[in-house]
Design a protein that fits this description.
heterodimer, A: alpha/beta, Rossmann fold, nine-stranded mixed beta sheet, six-stranded parallel beta sheet, about 30% helix, B: about 800 residues, alpha+beta, 4 domains, five-stranded antiparallel beta sheet, 13 strands
Chain lengths: ~425, ~800
């Protein structure tokens, strides 16, 4: 089976599937009623983690372009319920796995979809890349800078197609900002705002930080539910006694698995900024935090995180307690400002923007990328860069101090403790997977 | 053996404790330092952190050892403060390395005696952050996926000499393998390498050719443009990719070729490429448009629009009036993209004479032309056009888009005369003055107007209380789930007591309960102390039920987090105390007028004055315009209360011996000012208006108010014509009203001007023998508590 699949991939699909800026209605026919894709030519996908986003309408999908052939979860209830849903929706019985390694190494799986809490993203991505699988990974890409670096290396070395799943850099209006990213990108590229730029991500510019995604201190020890393989749920994370709040949904409030609103939403908000600032191939050199002291286990709130690039550009995250005095600019340059809703201090900006060429098109259909082997618009490289911005903030928060970063080595400068958060030890022998 | 160690340890401790107390500036023992620091955990800002945790670090290892010994087994679940302190000192010592050794030593020693595995792992994780060896974590080398990993290793090893490997890889039938080679070669893709790859181009399959074409685009290979352009001309399987690549490489030649491709079957792809191609399109497009026929003309119009190629505007204006309907339509669609300020008049006349079915399109054209004018010229240009127009209503949307005051009043007038199109235009206005007519329309059931009204309020109304009042009016006319949701979301971002009350009403409305619950939680979080405890408790119970049900139904984690947040919030709230008289007051015969629970001894405006968590809260409730009075009347008395400003510029007053429903400053004995006179808005204040003054009669000594949110005490003593005001123990007014105006409370000549009072006004009530005591004012931002009175007249009677 695996040879057959590979042969197909070698053959590829000419014409329509390749040219990604074709109108979608042309490609849409492929998955429609009059589909001409033979089952052997379909791609296949296995989902790891079907309790949250992996079970959402957005991702729990089985169609003729890509069939859902395997599901995996360490919570038997989640797995059973997903299997039932697959049966009810499409009358299919995907293979059910408990251990993600079995799903990754299943020769029937072309694409590994990682929808677990983020402490697994690094290990699973590297393992999938080494197994020759293409990868769709939910944001945030990884929970440490070191893991992200190794995912990028593994994907490149194994010639894989990797999609990081957030999309605002190329699609949709951007949370409460009231505009999509394209006009912002054109405006910034035009140089009309001057340089360097300051970007403020705050409630006042349309981005809520989900501060209630915090952890609890002093968790009481609870019995582990029968259906949950807690040991495998924790995997590389340090062993801590079970409490329901650590796991499903609320895991975001603990540093061991994620990083609260910043860790979980940060990449959604920051990735498009990195894109329009043209910083996809570099990192900030400094991160400053203003926050109450953080608990070593439970994520707390923060007031402000400021990133500075070498050229002076800044990304400022305004957090808890930020009260706007009047209108707050989203982007501020020496020659102009942009507010929510693409309101700009430069007159008649829309006409000015229209005279500029669109940004260079990128491939934004993941399945097309898998076929044509062209890089996806948000991939292992720029994805690792924006995840690193988030993770730099996490390190500075946890240590409670300003940190300086070397974009070349991807390590903090003269700060051993911070660098120990860049590369963290893994429990048991999980470290061998990354 | 064990005992010996303990003895040695104890000795070490004693010595250590002494040495620490010598170091600590406040001469504290390590135990005391630890206790002091724990009481401050977690620190709220960097300075506190540096100071508190710095103390711990300076006292290490003893302080850290004490902390480590305080760790309890996980079941007890009480370690958080100790964990804050230990992780804090570890972080501090990792940044102030002179302390790292001592902290490390203490934690190392503590690991073996940790109470359980959890504590042990915690200590080890902390130890790792300040470990002395800086050995990096070693990672496993993976074999990787054959043959790709091998190819990667080979190309990396070959570096700049990788061309042969790449050329060989291109022969593979595996596309992933070929693309891997090309991607890796990008690092070394100079013109020579690119040329070598392109030499093999002809020998490749169509798919292989596509890969190379895409790669040329990735690398902006200008040198290979001829090859790319040749592929476009041919019109075959590789053409789409060649078109994309030409677009990415750009330049005049590419543009010419892409424009030519508009005439082929690949016009859609060519058009897309032209939208992003870099280079000047004006002349080529102009020329192409003149030469083009049929479909190509339409594509060019679309391009002209999306790239705003103004050179073609006159041609497009002509085409709009063409007899060829398809062409005219395409030109009309393109026109807003290219029209400029110079063609405002032309655009207006086109709009005026447009067929009904085309009005919307010509409005876009006109609007685009107007928007190209400087902002301050737009209104006059439009009103000029409106005067000339037969169908002037067609210009309303443009008029509204100017957002000038004049545009709002023009449209409002037109609407009031019955012109529905004017209202439609007002909906799009960004001028806050449009709020009034929009609200009126909303009250008549217009949903669009309602939504627009809420939008304007959100954008323009910065004062939370005013905004709440505006939204309350909106809520009254919200009838559909969509409208209610719109208002509720806005209320959720407006944290006031009144917004809480308002949103609370929607918790029982099934259609919008989830939205209301999230909004209510957000409001409560931001103005917790302003919400009455019982009301908070009741509403939050409802919210929890709603959020839990929603979480179960949808799997959305927001509900679960919100419930956790609510529970945490409720745990922190405590019901307020009930105020009682002091022993001294009891003896003296004081009576409590407000003990924190009810306003039974008060009458008058109980909408604007309400009881919240033990205080009288002066609210900004709409329709709140009268005063609050004591039920009883008083002649001579001592009146005591606490007051607190929560907003700058608060203005209120205490009415003395006043009838109800009149201006106490003139028809009562006097009004004793309550005023945040330090606020800059009162810069021009008369001295008889400052806090404590018998308004208009005797000025008080100007006191310095406490910061917002802090409580002050006040006592007003009235005996006969004498009044004495004491604030925070300081007497600021002590005088006789009759003497102050030399007995002339009204002008002797019967006129309105009284030379005997400092405000030159008549004060007919000044010599009232008795009357109510009242709080006079209806501006929010003020709280009273613990109000009591001593009736001196009663006492004398006794």
């Amino acid at each position: 089976m695996s040879i057959d699949r590979r042969t197909f991939l070698q053959r590829g699909a000419m014409g329509a599937a390749l040219f990604t800026i074709l109108p979608r209605n042309v490609l849409g026919k492929m998955g429609g009623k009059n589909s001409f894709i033979a089952p052997s030519d379909q791609l296949t996908r296995g989902i790891i983690g079907v309790g949250g986003i992996g079970r959402s309408d957005l991702h729990f999908v089985n169609d003729e372009r890509c069939r859902m052939v395997a599901l995996c979860d360490v919570d038997q209830k989640h797995l059973d319920s997903a299997m039932e849903a697959a049966k009810a929706k499409w009358n299919i019985t995907p293979k059910a796995y408990h251990d993600f390694r079995d799903l990754i190494h299943d020769p029937d799986v072309d694409i590994v979809h990682i929808a677990t809490p983020s402490h697994w993203h690094g290990i699973m991505s590297v393992e999938a890349a080494n197994a020759g699988k293409d990868i769709l990974c939910e944001k945030p890409m990884t929970r440490t800078i070191g893991e992200g670096k190794r995912v990028e290396e593994a994907v490149k070395r194994n010639g894989r197609i990797f999609r990081l799943d957030t999309w605002f850099r190329f699609k949709d209006t951007f949370y409460g900002l009231g505009t999509d990213v394209k006009p912002l990108k054109k405006l910034i590229d035009s140089g009309l705002l001057g340089w360097p730029l300051k970007v403020r991500i705050s409630g006042a510019t349309g981005f809520t930080w989900k501060f209630f995604w915090t952890g609890k201190e002093n968790l009481e020890v609870q019995p582990i539910p029968k259906e949950l393989d807690y040991d495998l749920w924790l995997g590389p994370a340090p062993y801590k006694p079970y409490n329901v709040h650590r796991t499903h949904q609320t895991f975001r409030g603990y540093w061991d698995y994620d990083g609260g609103g910043l860790g979980d939403m940060g990449q959604h908000y920051i990735d498009p900024v990195q894109y329009f600032l043209g910083k996809d191939d570099t990192f900030p050199v400094k991160v400053e935090v203003d926050a109450p002291q953080q608990h070593p286990d439970a994520v707390g709130i923060w007031r402000k995180i400021t990133y500075t690039y070498e050229d002076g550009c800044q990304i400022i995250l305004e957090g808890e307690g930020f009260e706007s005095q009047g209108k707050v600019p989203y982007i501020e340059g020496p020659k102009g400002k942009v507010y929510k809703g693409f309101e700009c201090t430069i007159p008649n900006i829309q006409s000015v923007i229209n005279e500029l060429p669109d940004p260079e098109p990128r491939c934004t259909d993941f399945l097309d990328c898998v076929r044509s082997r062209r890089q996806f618009a948000l991939n292992e490289s720029n994805g690792h860069h924006s995840a690193t911005i988030v993770n730099m903030g996490v390190c500075a928060l946890r240590l409670g101090r300003t940190l300086h970063f070397d974009p070349k080595t991807q390590l903090f400068i003269n700060d051993d403790a911070a660098n120990r958060l860049v590369n963290q030890p893994m429990r048991g022998d999980w470290g061998k997977y990354i | 053996m064990y005992k010996t160690i303990r003895i040695i340890m104890a000795a070490f401790w004693l010595l250590a404790a002494m040495s620490v107390s010598a170091q600590d500036q406040r001469q504290r023992k390590p135990e005391t330092i630890v206790q002091d620091v724990l009481a401050q955990m977690p620190t709220q800002n960097h300075d506190d952190f540096e100071r508190e945790i710095g103390d711990l670090a300076k006292g290490a290892p003893q302080t850290v050892t004490i902390l480590c010994r305080m760790l309890q087994p996980a079941e007890k679940a009480c370690n958080n403060m100790v964990e804050y302190a230990i992780s804090g000192v570890v972080s501090y010592a990792s940044g102030h390395t002179q302390y790292a050794g001592a902290v490390r030593q203490a934690i190392e020693e503590a690991v073996s005696s940790a109470p359980d595995q959890t504590a042990k792992e915690f200590l080890q994780s902390q130890l790792r952050l300040i470990a002395s060896d800086s050995k990096a974590i070693e990672y496993t080398a993976h074999a990787g996926a054959a043959p790709y990993a091998q190819l990667y290793d080979d190309i990396k090893a070959a570096g700049g000499n990788c061309t042969d490997i790449v050329l060989k890889a291109l022969k593979s039938k595996d596309r992933a393998y070929r693309m891997q080679a090309l991607k890796l070669a990008a690092d070394y893709a100079d013109d020579a390498t690119i040329a070598k790859v392109c030499k093999k181009y002809k020998s490749l399959s169509d798919e292989g050719k596509e890969d190379v074409l895409g790669w040329l685009g990735d690398n902006k290979a200008v040198s290979q443009l001829p090859l790319v352009l040749k592929e476009i001309e041919k019109g075959k399987a590789t053409t789409p990719m060649a078109i994309e690549t030409a677009g990415r490489i750009g330049g005049d030649e590419a543009i010419t070729a892409l424009l030519a491709a508009l005439q082929t079957d690949y016009s859609a792809q060519a058009l897309n490429a032209l939208k992003s191609v870099k280079g000047d399109l004006s002349q080529p497009v102009m020329q192409a448009l003149q030469e083009a026929t049929g479909e190509q003309k339409l594509a060019l119009l679309s391009l002209a629009q999306s790239r705003r190629i103004k050179a073609v505007t006159p041609v497009v204006l002509e085409m709009v009036e063409s007899n060829d309907a398809t062409l005219a339509d395409a030109a009309l669609k393109a026109l807003p993209g290219v029209i400029t300020a110079g063609e405002v008049d032309k655009a207006a006349s086109l709009l005026d004479k447009a067929a009904d079915s085309k009005v919307a399109d010509f409005q876009k054209v006109f609007m685009a032309a107007v928007n190209d004018l400087a902002a301050d010229q737009r209104y006059s240009a439009i009103s000029k056009a409106m005067k000339a127009a037969k169908n002037s209503a067609r210009l309303y949307p443009a008029l509204a888009s100017t957002a000038t005051d004049q545009s709002v009043s023009d449209l409002q007038q037109a609407w009031e005369k019955g012109d529905a199109q004017a209202l439609q235009a007002l909906v799009s206005s960004t001028n806050y003055k449009a709020a009034a007519p929009l609200l009126k329309a909303a009250q008549q059931g217009n949903e669009q107007a309602l939504s627009a009204y809420v939008g304007l309020v959100e954008t323009h109304e910065t004062d939370a209380d005013t905004r709440t009042n505006c939204l309350a009016k909106a809520m009254e006319c919200a009838k559909t789930a969509a409208s209610k949701t719109r208002v509720l979301n806005s209320l959720g971002a407006t944290a006031t007591r009144n917004s809480f009350i308002l949103v609370g009403k929607s918790l029982d409305d099934k259609e919008v309960a989830y939205t209301a619950a999230l909004a209510q939680k957000n409001i409560a979080r931001k103005c917790l102390s302003d919400i009455d405890y019982k009301m908070l408790q009741a509403d939050m119970d409802k919210c929890i039920a709603i959020l839990e049900a929603h979480g179960k139904a949808t799997g959305n984690p927001d509900g679960v987090y919100a419930v956790g947040e609510i529970k945490k919030m409720l745990a922190e709230v405590k019901p307020s105390p009930v105020y009682v008289l002091t022993e001294e007051e009891q003896k003296a015969g004081f009576e409590i007028l407000f003990d924190g629970t009810n306003l039974d001894k008060w009458t008058g405006n109980k909408v604007g004055y309400i009881v919240v968590n033990g205080v009288i809260y002066v609210t900004a409730n709409y329709g709140n315009e009268s005063n609050l009075y004591t039920v009883n009347e008083y002649r001579d008395f001592v009146f005591r209360f606490d007051f607190c400003f929560t907003k700058p510029g608060v203005n209120n007053g205490v009415g003395i011996r006043t009838p109800m429903g009149v201006d106490a400053a003139y028809y009562g004995m006097c009004e004793c000012q309550i005023l945040d006179h330090d606020d800059p808005i009162y810069a021009g204040l008369h001295e008889y208006q400052v806090h404590g003054s018998a308004y208009g009669i005797i000025p008080a000594k100007r006191l310095k108010h406490k910061p917002l949110g802090e409580w002050s005490t006040e006592e007003i003593e009235v005996k006969g014509d004498h009044i004495k005001v004491t604030v925070n123990g300081e007497v600021i007014l002590d005088g006789n009203l009759r003497e102050a105006c030399q007995g002339h409370n009204v002008a002797p000549d019967g006129s309105d001007t009284n030379p005997y009072t400092v405000d030159h006004r008549n004060h007919p009530g000044m010599f009232n023998k008795t009357g109510h005591i009242g709080f006079l004012g209806h501006g929010e931002g003020l709280k009273f508590r613990n109000v009591r009175v001593l009736d001196l007249s009663k006492k004398t009677k006794k």
